[in-house]
Amino acid sequence: MFDRRRILQASLAATALSVAGVRVSFASPATDKRLVVVILRGALDGLTAVPPVGDPDYASVRGKLAIARGDAHPLDATFALHPTLATMHTMWSAKELAVFHCIASPYRDRSHFDAQAVLETGGTSPHGHNDGWLNRALPAAGLDDGTRALAVADTTPLILLGKARTTSWMPATMPSVDEDFLSRVRALYAHDPQLGNALGEALKTEAAMQGTMSSSAPPAAPMQTQSGMDADPLADPNMNGDGKPKPQYANAKASLALLGAGAGKLLASPDGPRVAVLDFSGWDTHVGEGAADGILARRLAALDAALAALKHSLGPAWKDTAVVMATEFGRTVAPNGAGGTDHGTGTVAFLMGGTVAGGKVHAQWDGLKVGSLYQARDLPPRTDVRALFKGALADHLRLPRTAIEGTVFPDSGTVAPMSGLFTA
Question: Which parts of 315-378 fold into alpha helices (H)?
């Protein structure tokens, strides 16, 4: 049985979502620190994103997928950034970016679905937890009131699912609500404190987002979540049968930049979210991966644009922001017969932000000879990615060690948090 108030509440909730996509609170947050987790679904090829151009075996083992040293952005004597990652290289030069190579979750099989579950739940098995490690961290950080943790996605990813309340936002795909309609809604709820305040909060978010959403960039295309092993390992998810990029990848640069800008705008608000998750797919490069140019290069360029937009929209809040970027597993060292790479193990992760102790590549690098590879085919998993996550929670969000070990990552007693990742 629904009375009039409950029907109106449901109606207003739908209106608020279509107008703004997220509700905000006017109360002061528990911290000024921001943490952004970027999930790269599909298994990013770490040897292309951060090629070891100084390794003597790199060019020969990668063949046509090798990137020339002169084309890449140098990091140190061994490693470089892909040519399209110009913004990330600028962060590196400013010591705002740290790179982690040969890193992986505890998962050692090669199913996208199971690997993503392990990455997001923070356990050792895809069936160990049914909630996300970042959701479990929210109460200890005082960010569990439903307005402080934001998923930039159509549906909340597993990493943010759990008992703690969160919210989500995506650019509106419906036509904008005109002023006449809003005036009628304001009048309807003018004398109802609960519904009137809810509408006011939604419109406040809409006003905050107006500059971002009026961008000339095309609207973001839905990002499809990878699940399970590929039905056809030779089917390129980025391309149509005619060899042209699918629409969502053809305009991926503008789309991802729009998402980055929107997230930054909301995080920059003094009373806005303090934790956000950006969820980008399209990294499963079995066919025609390319090197300095090609499918993966275009996707990396889109990612770089999203990070640039995120930093720009954060403005002064960048100095209080840490961005952790990870993928579920890496890809094979040697290319396959279709000019791509298959599911692997070790890969790369990134940490960037205004207080990051950057300008460093963290890697136990043993080279690319077959004897140094995991199962004679993959980059070895030398570092547990949970050590990076733990370090960010401990030294950036200042979570107590007891909460990190006992609640957030209860199955990781042998994995020590990384230290020295931040300057303040």
Answer: none
**Euclidean distance between CA atoms 319 and 303, whole angstroms:** 21
**Torsions phi, psi of 276, nearest 5?**
-145, 150
DSSP code at position 408: I
Provide the β-strand partners of residue 324: 37, 351
Q: What is the DSSP letter of 245?
A: B
pLDDT for 1: 30
Structure tokens at 107: 């998962």
Given a contact cutoff of 8 angstroms between Cβ atoms, the answer to whether 95 and 358 are in contact is yes
353: number of Cβ within 10 Å: 28
Q: Residue 145 and residue 110: Cα distance in Å, rounded?
A: 36
In angstroms, what CA-CA distances link 141 with 22, 36, 136? 21, 14, 10
Other CB atoms within 10 Å distance of the CB of residue 216: 5
**148 alpha-carbon distance from chain centroid:** 17
Record the tokens describing residue 404, joined without a space.
Answer: 């990190």
State how far the Cα of 325 lies from the Cα of 351, in Å rounded to an integer: 6
Going by the DSSP 8-state scheme, the letter that residue 314 receives in this structure is H
Task: Please tell me the total number of residues recorded for the chain in this structure.
Answer: 424
Nearest to 347 by CA among 333, 367, 366: 333
Q: Which of 82, 89, 153 is nearest to 301 (CA)?
A: 82
> Could you state, in chain order, the average pLDDT of each consecutive group of 10 residues for the chain (424 residues)?
39 40 56 97 98 98 98 98 98 98 97 97 94 98 96 94 95 57 66 70 56 40 31 40 47 86 96 96 96 96 97 98 98 98 98 98 98 98 98 98 97 95 92
Cα→Cα distances 146→19, 126, 400, Å: 19, 26, 21
Integer Cα distance of 215 and 67 in angstroms: 34
Query: Kindly report the CA angle at 220 between 293 and 82, in degrees rounded to 5?
Result: 25
**Could you give the 3-state DSSP secondary structure of residue 372?**
helix
DSSP β-ladder status, 165-168 and 97-104: unpaired
What's the rounded Cα separation, in Å, for the pair 199 and 406? 39
Is beta strand 80-81 parallel, antiparallel or unpaired with respect to 73-74? Answer: antiparallel
DSSP conformational letter for 19: H
